[in-house]
Amino acid sequence: MNFSEKLLRATEKHHSWLCIGLDPDLDPLPLVLKKRSGADAIVEFNRRIIEATQDLVCAYKPNSAFYEALGPHGLEILTRTREVIPREIPVILDAKRGDIANTARKYAQSAFEVYKFDAITVNPYMGWDSIEPFLAYKERAVFLLCRTSNPGARDFQDLNCSGVALYQVVAEKVKEWSRKGAGELALVAGATYPEELQIVREIIGEELMILVPGVGAQEGDLAKAVRSAANSERQRAIINVSRSILYASAEEDFAQAARREAQRLRDEINQCLE
Amino acid sequence: MNFSEKLLRATEKHHSWLCIGLDPDLDPLPLVLKKRSGADAIVEFNRRIIEATQDLVCAYKPNSAFYEALGPHGLEILTRTREVIPREIPVILDAKRGDIANTARKYAQSAFEVYKFDAITVNPYMGWDSIEPFLAYKERAVFLLCRTSNPGARDFQDLNCSGVALYQVVAEKVKEWSRKGAGELALVAGATYPEELQIVREIIGEELMILVPGVGAQEGDLAKAVRSAANSERQRAIINVSRSILYASAEEDFAQAARREAQRLRDEINQCLE
Fold it and tell me: Keywords assigned by UniProt (chains A, B) (predicted)?
């Protein structure tokens, strides 16, 4: 089963385009877990978040940085987290990797063979041969950064390249390259820039997936973002939320609070798509 | 001591602008080591390469991908490798990271606090707020990708942005931003494109360091690259070589062969700088 099929099944089953970012941070970790040792606390935190939300999401997205910051042991926490997620829910590793082909093959091996993720985010700056090794995996997907959700997105992604912005050139390339690999190509465009998100959807057409971060803590406008990113069938826009779900409560009830927030967001996304 | 001071001391002491990329790959690993278990073999390989070359280099540069591909244990190998390198030789983590500020802080924490590297390579695509967290560390350096050494560098980095190529805009930003952080900003420009390398040096001026990959297996022209990257005092161009040193021999004598190749390259670089 390819990535889109797996994702669409989860979407239909859970009636959801919500993806939860699993970015555990020791500082805002609920007090009830802080008594445990660091690693166990994080695995337990992730486990309870996943168990409380797994019937409400179309995907999960752990960001590698939060695990790497814990040293070698953090990658074991990532492995254990991956194992807790039900097999039928796709997991996107947010790693934003990119390197020359020989090295990109190692990153692809890590993400797809060692940790067995369904998809990975990749930075486009180094061009096609830095992306191709990830697309050699048939049932996996690559989400290329296009227009990111942060303020610095303006520094380079908006540069005028012979009449179109750099991020638009990236979107055009994603469309062109989407026919070249065995794996599936998709892209990342932030909720904080809904106009650009709409332009990106117009460029790439109906088929390709867009992963939309920036809702919640980053304060992107959910309704505008959902409508701009979805295709004409109101499909294929994966809305990622991390902090506002994970840290909905700092108390004993953090998992139930996360569930309530996830449910609210899922329903709001669905309303926007009606 | 800041990064440049540390690097310049190693340069003077070893009369060298050569940096060795520590990118251990199980496939071309010398036969003599293959009998050991994977992890031990790689630590031993790195240890023998470092011991054989440490008086010939100005820096080492492990690429994170080669360690990540070995799973959580690979990061322990990276830690053990870091410990083998003498304290006075700077170590650049080649990780090409880049993410929103909140996440970039985690990557910076990983590179500088957990693994204690002296510098890291960072991808510029996401702009200033994705770079700033790395520059919060006073005695460390950030090497921003500018014009990379791979064929795909042309896909985006050469795009015409209102009269100048994208990589030139990045170089201009590196110069501008180099005054903004506590840490030191530098850049990466590949040996495979010497004309572009020269343009980059002209843009950034005399002070900033350039890390130059692409010599050796990637077949960049060493003489042209060295002369293009160095400033007018024939300084501040760090020439990185990985595979052609690491795998100079697949036999028992691999460390001596690596030493000979490193010595030859160091001397050739110095001749180009005379």
Answer: Decarboxylase, Lyase, Pyrimidine biosynthesis
Chain B residues close to A102, C-beta within 8 Å: 217
Q: Do B125 and A125 touch (CB under 8 A)?
A: yes
- Alpha carbon distance A137, A130 (integer Å): 14
Residue A13 appears among annotated catalytic residues: no
Q: How many CA atoms lie within 13 A of A48 on its CB side?
A: 20
- CB distance B72–A70 less than 8 Å? no
- Measured between beta carbons, the chain B residues lying within 8 angstroms of A104 are 65
In what helix (H) or strand (E) does residue B32 lie, and over which residues does it extend? helix B31-34
- Look-up: residue for tokens 């590179």? B111
- Dihedral, CA atoms, B33, B36, B37, B41, nearest 10 degrees? -30
Residues of B in contact with A39 (CB under 8 A): none
- What is the 3-state composition of chain A as percent helix, strand, coil, each rounded to the nearest 5? 50, 20, 35
Determine the residue of chain B that is closest to A74 in CA distance: B72
Mutation for testing the A interface, residue in B112, B113, B156, B170 having most A CBs under 10 Å: B156
Contact of A182 with chain B, judged by CB distance below 8 Å, is answered with: no
CA distance B248 to B227: 25
| Strands of the sheet with A160-161, listed across from one edge | A164-165, A160-161, B160-161, B164-165
Interatomic CA distance for residues B71 and A75, integer angstroms:
7
Q: Which of A6, A13, A61, A96 is catalytic?
A: A96
Sheet holding B119-122, edge to edge: B59-62, B18-22, B237-241, B210-212, B184-189, B141-147, B119-122, B92-97
Using one digit for the tens of pLDDT, what is the confidence trace for A21-80? 999 987 777 877 777 777 789 999 999 999 999 999 999 999 999 999 999 999 999 999
What is the C-alpha radius of gyration for chain A, rounded to an integer number of angstroms?
18
Candidate from A100, A124, A154 with C-beta closest to B156: A124
Chain A: closest CA distance from residue B81 (Å)? 13
The tens digit of pLDDT for each residue in A165-213 reads 999 999 999 999 999 989 999 999 999 999 999 999 999 999 999 999 9
Domains of chain A: 3-273 (3.20.20.70)
Residue A180 touches partner B, C-beta closer than 8 Å: no
